[in-house]
Amino acid sequence: MNEGKSNILLVDDHALILQGMKHLIQQMPEIGNVSTASTGKEAVHIINSQPFDLYMLDLELPDMTGFELIEVIREKKTQARILISTMHEEIWTIKRLIQNNIDGAVLKSTDTFELKLAIQKIMGGETYFCRRFERILQRSNNSKVESSVKDRLTQREIEVLKAIAQGLNTREIAEFFHVSSNTIESHRKNLMIKLEAKNAVDLVLKAINYGIISIDNKL
Fold first, then answer.
1. pTM value surpassing 0.70
2. Is the pLDDT of residue 195 over 70?
3. What is the architecture of the domain spanning 145-209?
């Protein structure tokens, strides 16, 4: 009998991880049925066929991203409880997850106690982020540092920064803003100095980390 128990959908493309989590979660007395899916398409089919109390998702699937799957779930059930299990601990990934209003996130390397705790907290109406994510968020949430860096940038520098993040080269950016390539190179040099970046990739990552631009920024 599963009356009064919570049903969970696990989505992960690694069979061993999927079956290992299923076995672990099934041991929890408050859990009823545990369904599994190894692709986004399979997950969407299951999501459309029955409701779940908790959706536990990996971010990397062979046919779609975890972020796309979150959108599918939210469209069907706006108040769905979603827990992310991932190997990614980059600050921009964590912040994007928070922007998607998930209920919690744990690293795949987390121990069984913390995984069970995360599930129990979320099923109880709370949010839960593993200790590693909490520490990363605390370090990044220094608003004084973020605002001071952003305040040092001019509006045009921010616009150029967004263009760089979109993968445009100096010539393309210059044509877009109707200025010379030398002007854009000057902005690029100033950005590298102000954000203490080593290269263009480092520049974009630091800009996302400081909250100057978002992952899906547009000009």
1. no
2. yes
3. Orthogonal Bundle (1.10)
